[in-house]
Amino acid sequence: MKKVKYKGYVISQAFNKHIMITKDNKMVFHASTTKRFSRKELKGKVDWFIRFFEE
Questions:
Q1: Per-residue pLDDT tens digits for 9-24
Q2: In what helix (H) or strand (E) does residue 4 lie, and over which residues does it extend?
């Protein structure tokens, strides 16, 4: 499992390609994907989440 800490969130991608964003040990977002993401791309998903759900 790949995990990245970024802007107070932890985003991880499991072997089945699902991504999960957590904050304070609580899941705030989950999605099934068909692609393996790089660390840079995972950070981009956190930026997307903040832009659309935290404002």
A1: 999 999 999 999 999 9
A2: strand 2-6
